[in-house]
Write a structure and sequence with these properties.
The chain is mainly alpha-helical. The protein has helices spanning 2-12, 18-22, 34-68, 85-90, 96-100, 137-149, 160-170, 176-193, 198-207; strands at residues 71-76, 79-84, 131-133.
Length: 385
């Protein structure tokens, strides 16, 4: 009570205290704004502090989001690839993939990501959260591995042209020159390995004297159209004649040793005194061919593969077919007089109407072979098992 009186007395006696001075009116009769300003400043400080805290929390949230987005899934052509953000950005920072996911990475010059880099909006996501990219997955995989370790590794069955096109699409600039060089090398190799054509063979025939032996040994003639050509005395040893059209061609005295004539068409061809040791004629068409040499020289087809071949109505008098594979072959109405079929595999072979007079059939396999309407019955000395 005494303290309260002293304050009152001091106030009335004209000696104002600090408290009374702050609340006294000014000369205009208005209350001073000092306390109001102090309150306003305090409020501003609190708001600024709150904004700083909010910014810190937002930054923390972004940092947490950045951490969670380090692994990214890409659905390329239906196949999902999972990789890291750094893999997509570090190796090729200007590629399409880097620009698609640049919003995940701070654009700082010190880190090698220029701030003026054009950013692409990522594509839509599938149900599992993987970004959808409508490209070929088999050609994308070598590009992703290149971004991972800097080496181009791809399966042998993949087309280099396909990988190159994908590299151009995704903007993998560091890989494009290497792929272009490999494509050029492959194209040069393919040109060298391309099969010869009818034009090439005719040109060689015209330029070569009839006194000179023409050799196509080991040459690739696959699928060539060689019908009705005079190919006498030519050496086709080890040559690839797969799928060739040799119908009505003259192949007399040719060397076809170990040549590949699988599924070739030799219908009506002349094959006198041919040397076809261990040749592959599986599935070939030799219908109506002539193997008989009037001089008595026999064609040698020992060990030949004629599995599933058609030799219907062919003249094979005296032909050497020792240990040949004639499974499922069509030898209907063939002339096989004095032919050597010792040890041949004739299982399920059609020999209906064929002439096997004086043929050597010792050790031949005739299991399930068709022998109806034989012109000459098999002789007892012809050991058949």
């Amino acid at each position: 009570m005494s303290t309260r009186k002293i304050n009152t007395s001091n106030s009335s006696s004209g000696s104002p205290s600090r408290a009374s001075t702050s609340s006294a009116p000014d000369c205009d009769g208005r209350m001073p704004s000092t306390s109001t300003a102090m309150v306003s400043d305090a409020s501003s400080v609190q708001k600024a502090s709150g904004s700083t805290n909010n910014a810190q929390r937002t930054s923390a949230g972004q940092s947490s989001s950045l951490v969670s987005s380090k692994w990214i899934s890409l659905n390329v052509g239906g196949k999902v690839f999972t990789t890291t953000l750094s893999t997509l950005i570090n190796k090729e920072p200007h590629s399409m993939l880097a620009r698609m996911f640049a919003h995940h990475q701070e654009q700082e010059d010190a880190d090698g990501y220029p701030g003026n880099q054009i950013v692409m909006a990522p594509s839509d996501k599938d149900g599992r959260g993987a970004y959808l990219i409508d490209r070929s997955s088999q050609y994308f995989e070598p590009l992703l591995n290149y971004l991972r370790h800097g080496q181009l590794i791809y399966d042998a069955h993949l087309s280099l042209e396909g990988i190159l096109e994908e590299a151009k699409f995704f903007g993998i600039e560091g890989l494009i020159p290497q792929l272009e060089s490999l494509v050029q090398q492959q194209q040069a190799t393919n040109v060298e390995d391309m099969p010869l054509t009818r034009r090439d063979v005719i040109s060689a025939l015209i330029k070569t004297s009839h006194m000179t032996e023409l050799r196509f040994q080991g040459v690739n003639l696959a699928g060539a159209d060689l019908r009705k050509l005079d190919l006498r005395h030519i050496n086709f040893k080890y040559a690839c004649l797969r799928g060739c059209n040799l119908s009505l061609a003259n192949l007399n005295f040719c060397c076809l040793e170990r040549a590949d004539l699988s599924h070739a068409n030799l219908e009506g061809a002349q094959l006198l005194s041919v040397k076809g040791l261990c040749a592959n004629m599986e599935g070939a068409n030799l219908q109506g061919c002539n193997f008989e040499d009037p001089s008595g020289v026999r064609s040698n087809l020992e060990g030949v593969n004629l599995k599933g071949a058609c030799l219907e109505n062919s003249n094979m008098t005296g032909v050497n077919l020792r240990v040949a594979n004639l499974r499922n072959a069509n030898l209907k109405n063939c002339n096989l007089r004095a032919a050597v079929l010792a040890g041949a595999d004739l299982e399920r072979c059609n020999l209906s109407g064929s002439d096997l007079q004086e043929a050597n059939l010792r050790g031949a396999n005739f299991k399930d072979a068709q022998l109806e309407l034989m012109l000459t019955p098999l002789h007892m000395s012809q050991a058949v098992r």
